[in-house]
Amino acid sequence: MLAVCTLRALSPKTFSLLSRQHWSAAIDALADGSPAIVVLGQSLNPDGSTPKTLLCRAEAAASLHFSSANYLGVRPPVIATGGDPVGAGTSEAAVMGLLLRGHGVPESKICLEHRAQNTLQNAWEILPMLPKGCERILLVTSDFHMPRAAYLFEAVLASRGLNLTVVQYPVDINCRAARATPELNPTVCSAINAQSTLKRLQNEARFIRDEVEQIGLKQHIPGTEIQPLPEWRLKQALMEVEELLNRTAS
Question: Of 94, 97, 148, which Cα lies nearest the Cα of 120?
Fold first, then answer.
């Protein structure tokens, strides 16, 4: 079983996983319309152990769920999305469900999506799970992953003619849960989980330049082609990744 802990009620001073600018965006998002928190999975290790990136994403989603209630009287549902692309024997969503419940999020507020094999499928598969009247998706994922993830979510929403706003909540990989977790032997980590943040950012930039820009979004959802967003939005996503790359490399 996974080791979990109970989350205390948070104040703005302890809401450290998300930057101040994104906390301000949360206030606006929750005040203006019905939101849903969507937290993205991360490949498990071959032995089924949980990578630190996934611990941080689940912790951030739980923090956002409770802080929303503390300040605005609203506890948005949390949709955890992620299948089992590495064949670990359990889905990323199932692991996040355990972590979210361990952080105190009620089971009635958790919805698990077990099918998605990649980020574009995350965006596609959660659509039927969004609550009626939902106007905002509060997207939780790692900071290195956010530029591409936000772009892909916006592309899927546009392809379905859905007028929803994606509010970004990039999560630092060095969160409290990650710091409290012993380092795993690299030999038991999946290839992606053994990568440095710099390497992941380089891969994110490559994905945007080589796959999204050159071949579009044709190969990620079987039988469905998602139209890319306008060129300016693609350039914005790439610029965001390059800014993170420059900060990480310096």
Answer: 148
d(Cα 52, Cα 93) in Å, to the nearest integer?
Answer: 15
Task: Give the Cα-Cα-Cα angle 196, 139, 126 (nearest 5 degrees).
Answer: 110
Residue with tokens 């290790």: 45
Contacts within 8 Å (CB) and 24+ apart, 176-183: 176/16, 176/17, 176/59, 177/52, 177/55, 177/56, 177/58, 177/59, 178/52, 178/53, 178/55, 178/56, 181/52, 181/55
Query: 216 is written with which tokens?
Result: 């579009």
Backbone angles phi, psi at 111, to 5 degrees: -125, 130
- For residues 47 and 188, is the Cβ–Cβ distance under 8 A? yes
Mean pLDDT per 10-residue segment, the chain (250 residues): 26 36 50 81 88 93 88 84 93 96 95 94 94 92 94 93 93 66 45 68 86 62 83 92 86
Q: Considering the entire predicted model, what is its pTM?
A: 0.81
Q: Give me the half-sphere count of Cα atoms (radius 13 Å) on the Cβ side of residue 17.
A: 27
Partners of 214 in the beta sheet? none
